[in-house]
Amino acid sequence: MKAFSAVVRRELIAYFSSPLAYIVMAAFLLLQGALFALIIGYLSQPGQSSLSILQAFFGGTIFFWFFLVVAPLITMRLVAEERRSGTIEVLLTSPVTEAQVIAGKFSAALAFYLALWLPTVVYVLMIKSQASVDWGAVAASYLGVALIGALFVSLGLFASTLTRNQIIAAVLAFTGLIILFGMPLLRGLLISSSGFGAVIDHADLWQHMADYSKGIVDTRYVAYELSLTCLFLFLSTKSLELNKWR
Amino acid sequence: MIEVENLTKIYVDSPVVDRLSFFVPEGQILGFLGPNGAGKTTAMRMMTGFLPATSGEVVVAGINLDADPVGLRRKIGYLPENVPLYPELRVEEYLRFRADVEGVPRAEFPGRLDYVIERCMLSDVSRQVIGTLSKGFRQRVGLAGALIHEPPVLILDEPTVGLDPNQIIKVRELITELGQDHTVVLSTHILPEVEQVCERVFIIDNGRIVADGTPDALRTRLIGNPVVRVEVKGADVDAVESLGRLPGVVAAEGRTNGVFLVEHLSDADPREAVFHLAVERGWVLIGLTPEQATLEDVFVRLTTADEAASMAREV
Asked: From the list B48, B101, B145, which residue is nearest A6 (CB)?
């Protein structure tokens, strides 16, 4: 447990001692702020009440377009940099297990990702001051943000264990995320069989997020995101163990 | 303290480390000496459990690597080649991190930190960011990290590479000091380092130990008889023969400008006899010095392919 928290702490220090963290945070807040202003402007026109602010804010694709790029930036460093610099050798010859290392790195990356979202709570408070807020839907929205974020981060972490080059790690993660997110969108073009098509439909993260933003927490969605996250964490651990054999 | 039995690493088809077997008693400073690519780093990585061995056994402080890899890691302080560190951390933060992952109880933190910071002379830089430190300081931070959990065994891979001469001296002094209460295995391709620091040397070539002994023993055993260099003015024509007939002398050889090399048995120093001979013949004795054959000669002879085979047999 101490080793785990030491890894988490070191990763967090690494995030906040690089300019990348601040650039990502600033860009994220700028985009979300602009989006929020646009949504408010749009919804305050008469006759546009069919959509809730939360649905527009969390259910839109901006969430994905931003994080398809940002998640690889958050995760690319995690293992690749340790392998490049050789610090992995120190880490793996100390009495910690690969699983502890992966768990620590994942938690730190997820914490950073969630920290990006923290300031958006202000928007919710702003809405509350002017109108009523459906707290259930707010909680469900943030739950969706966390679950899908965990999935993205775990995939990026796995990509980072595959190489010692951060750029390659980022490209691998980006490719993986595009496939994960894009396949359901292109379903009509790719797959004709209706059986497999239905499976793909269930994997549509955009649909998941749209439902979360309405306050619907479908356990199938939760299970999908959690199980894929666990799968990628498992693969990361195995990949780290296998690295020794090279 | 360290037992290694038939340790082997095979990449594709060729062995990088070939049936390495040795025993290191407690408190010894052992040097792995060998050219680059001889298998020193691979052997060390296998001993620390970073690299799985193709076959063979490693036992450190009574713990078998295969049976309890995590337990064995607790017994070893390892400093990999090129001293990998996290450049964004401060020295103290790094040492705390190492203490945590090495499993030092929190209650012992202050004591351990003070100890390694003092021992490795880091008190001036303990608040500095590692990325801003000079190579010599980084080396000492790496050593401090390896010491933080009081391991009985230290494994140091090329601990003085890339340092300037002053830093090298400091790091060597530190290692010699650490040798008083740790069993140390270090690798190097710098010969004087081995002669200064190590009590015992393995010369490693192509993954095998081609020589094993104290630096002195290796010298005498492998270089042959000691030699005295005699320099005189006004030597006779038969000087070589006269020198060769002195008691204990094996052979004498004439060089230019009145220089003679006198090879003698190691238990019979001929210098007195040389002096008397010179007086008797009326030679002016200018120089009389024992020739120090260096480990360098041993090294070159052992690691050049043809010689190595015949030498290894002799040993």
From this structure: B101
